[in-house]
Specification:
heterodimer; A: 173 residues; globular; B: 102 residues; mainly alpha
Chain lengths: 173, 102
Amino acid sequence: MSLELFLFYLASAVAVFATLRTITCLNAAHALLYLISSLLSIAVIFYLIGAPFAATLEVIVYAGAIMVLFVFVIMMLNMGKQTVEQERSWLNPVIWIGPGIICTVLLAELVTLLVQKERLLETVIVTPKEVGISLFGPYLLAVELASMLLLAGLVGAYHLGRPLTQKQPGSIK
Amino acid sequence: MIAIPVEHCLLLSVMLFCLGLLGVLVRRNIIFVLMSMEIMLNAIGLAFVSGGARWGQADGQVMFLLVITLAAAEVAIGLALVLQLYQRYRTLDIETISKMKG
């Protein structure tokens, strides 16, 4: 087994384990740290399969920018020890059964479809230059639409994030 | 030349997607639901990139870029909604907003 293959399986194991810990963790900040380590190991996988640009974006945008938003919100909501107790009361083992069965069935279906035949991925490194040429050539319309989506997200987040006024329904005096 | 089976990349992507789906279905704290949705979007991005790497084309990474954009917009709106929920009801339980009039 070559070093790259070993690194690939190691990073995959880390990603799956960290994701499992993310969805079972009681403390939101700890779950966020596990999620970040999962994203970083997926960035390693991107690098190994010859996508260095995607790996960089994964680290900068996902593990950097998006997770910082989560950190801000968790800090603003100031979730302390009592929320851990609350999470423990919400997460009794019985409620895992139904969704667990659904997800296992889905996973089994997809795995049986995938393990039919094995093709080797000969790693060709796709450089950022090729990605950029493709991005601003045939995919120019998609880039424009993505920028409009981001603008809509900005406006929506600004609108929703404003503080409550007194007259709105549901506000607690 | 490195030879990683492309099926194994896709298997990893499928496993992460199912874990994210499990998180969305099980958790009641809305922050964990948003995190699980991030996991699912990231798994989709991994599938796109490994597909692009299989054929040595840049299109997979372009799609990954668009998925990242979608995730950023989604998480900005979602976290703004989390703040609204917390300001109105002082809780992060998604059960409280199941009785919305609409």
